[in-house]
Amino acid sequence: MIEECQLIYDDAEENMGRSLVHLEKEFQKIRAGKASPDMLDGIKVDYYGIMTPINQTANITTPDPRQIIVQPWDKSIIGALEKAILAANIGFNPKNEGEVLRIPVPPVTEQRRKELVKQARNESENARVSIRNIRRSANEEAKKLEKEGVSEDDIKKLQEQIQKLTDEYIEKVDEYFAKKEKDIMTI
Description:
Layout: H1 3-29, E1 44-47, E2 50-53, E3 58-64, E4 67-72, H2 78-87, E5 95-96, E6 101-104, H3 110-147, H4 152-185
Antiparallel strand pairs: 1-2, 3-4, 4-6, 5-6
């Protein structure tokens, strides 16, 4: 395959890989009943006037599957941490013990599990759409090469490889979703 075609293919593969990485990060935010420090990702704390991610102000651990412990490096911000977790509205009610916050992770109801599966399905569909958009862009780039004088056979071969790559990545998205769905529905 000529160099320009290889560049288009490599670019498409890299972007599809990014879509998969993004999907994994989104799946980490969907809690399946087991405590995880990732559950607090995205929460920002007012740390001396600057909104700072919670994991940059405290040590976050999960001693067991039903509890998260937030231990601030600066004990004076424990109230701000508590407020930030409550304000995030993620269903947690932290207990302030002076030096640490204990956050009990409530068991997930059957109805909530189904909602979480639906949320995971939506994230999977977003990833599929993203991958298809990458395929479309790569095919458009290939057609531009054809106008620049690259042979029709090379373009057809590139488009076939891009389609094969797309199918592989969509299959990976489906595998990730099946795994996440099993994880959510397991009590």
